[in-house]
Design goal:
The complex is a heterodimer of chains A (about 180) and B (about 140). Chain A is mostly helical. Helix content of chain A is about 80%, strand content about 0%. Chain B has one domain. In chain B, helix 4 packs antiparallel against helix 5. Classes of the chains: A mainly alpha (about 180), B mainly alpha (about 140).
Chain lengths: ~180, ~140
Amino acid sequence: MAEVVIILIFILVAAVVAVEIKSLLSAVVAHAAVGLGLCVVFFALRAPEVAITQLTVELLVLVILLRVTGVKRDMAEYFGGRREIFAVVSVLGSIGVFAFFMVLAMYEMPQFGMPLMTTSTFYIRESFKLTGAENMVSAILMNFRIYDTLGVFMVLFTSVTGVFVVLRREGRIKSNERHDDNS
Amino acid sequence: MSGMTIIVKNVVRFISAAIMLFAAYLMVHGETIPGGGYAGGIILASAFILMMLAFGKKVMANKLAVNAVLACEAAAALVFLVLVAAGMFYGNPLFDLFPSGERSIGLINLADIVLGAAVALAIYAAFLVLVDHKIRMEK
């Protein structure tokens, strides 16, 4: 667990940097460091599927944030000389750390062609005895995986709230301003 | 006179109650028949939306106003959250809650009903917010 703690401290430092730093570009890069560190944590905890999802989402968010913050100036001033050596070394180091934990996690995966039925076999054998529900799908959705159901419903709830917030009558600040104008 | 023709309105008057009854049946009997909370909730929301399409948007928007629907939806979501969190604080899996003799269903029925209500209100609220926006745009 020591490596997880070290990466979590790195994530914490990167998060503080992302909030406190002045330059927007540096903040975006620090935010990406948070996400990629989390990805390495997932690999260290032997959860490659979650790590791959986190990696793809993080890269997409990085591209969108870079586009939104409007990085338009010439990037040539960042390269050349000592800076370039530092950039290359840090990138190679990050790839090394990433690959190390990825290989460790991949060794935990079942061999190619091995059936991955441990959890579902437990559900099929034990669901009636443990839950008493005749419908096994309902037993799994509402009992074994009720937190999964809760997450799915929270996504629905958040989207509805988002629609309401976008389409509401007027913002609170705007109505206050209008009130001040009238008085 | 808003909404569709009187034929559609009369048909919807008969049918909507049956649809709601079927949705309630799916929600209550989630542990024995295929269906459950999500499907029942979607069917209930479709009954609301059908009534709104038939009777006109202003009639239904007055009967079930946006703020009331959103408040009920949030309350249902909170109840569902409390039900799910109850399993954590009991210190044992959810299926050991409320043991009653040899066959205990636990939380399945309650969670199905609450989740169905919450899903129905959420889907209907999304539709209602959009309709409310259109009503305000027309003014």
